[in-house]
Amino acid sequence: MILVVEDDPQVARLITLVLQRNGRDALVVADGQTALVHAQKARPEMIFADLTIRGMGGAALCSALKSRDDTKHIPYVILSGDRDIAEKARVCGADDYMGKPFEFDDLMRLVNKYARAEG
């Protein structure tokens, strides 16, 4: 399962559709605090998270997950239209980042790079 942390319903639906069409399960949450709980309980294969989400932002969520022994191994990819995305990803400890808007092929390239093979 891939955790998608995105508060824009259209973007979340699009990511979920692309993942499902490529044989992946996705769980979408809209805020950082809920994502933190799900990451600790469900241990997703990877996390895609927007920087600007309600409550705990994407960078704070990333820092929180990367500072915990039980979640620091989960690949974390920031999705954002922010022009400082690379720097913000580096500072919080994200494994990678992808700018918005993005191509579906780029999304799946990151999934194939970071997510464990299902089965």
Short description:
This protein has 119 residues and is of the alpha/beta class. 44% of the residues lie in helices and 18% in strands.
Description:
With 119 residues, this protein is α/β, with parallel strands linked by helices. The protein has one domain: 3-Layer(aba) Sandwich (Rossmann fold). Helices cover 44% and strands 18% of the residues. It is built from five helices and five strands; from the N terminus they run E-H-E-H-E-H-E-H-E-H. The chain has helices spanning 9-21, 32-42, 58-66, 85-92, 104-114, and strands at 2-5, 26-29, 46-50, 76-80, 96-99. Strands 2-1-3-4-5 form a five-stranded parallel beta sheet, with helices on both faces. Helix 1 links the parallel strand 1 and strand 2. It is globular. The model has no long low-confidence stretch (mean pLDDT 95).
List keywords for this structure.
alpha/beta; 5 helices; Rossmann fold; 119 residues
Tell me, rounded to a whole number, the average pLDDT: 95
- At CATH level 3, the topology is Rossmann fold
CATH architecture: 3-Layer(aba) Sandwich
CATH hierarchy class name: Alpha Beta
How many distinct folded domains? 1
Query: Into which percent range does the helicity of residues fall?
Result: 40-55%
Largest sheet: 5 strands, parallel
List strands and helices in order, with pairings.
Layout: E1 2-5, H1 9-21, E2 26-29, H2 32-42, E3 46-50, H3 58-66, E4 76-80, H4 85-92, E5 96-99, H5 104-114
Parallel strand pairs: 1-2, 1-3, 3-4, 4-5
Helix pairs in contact: 2-3, 3-4
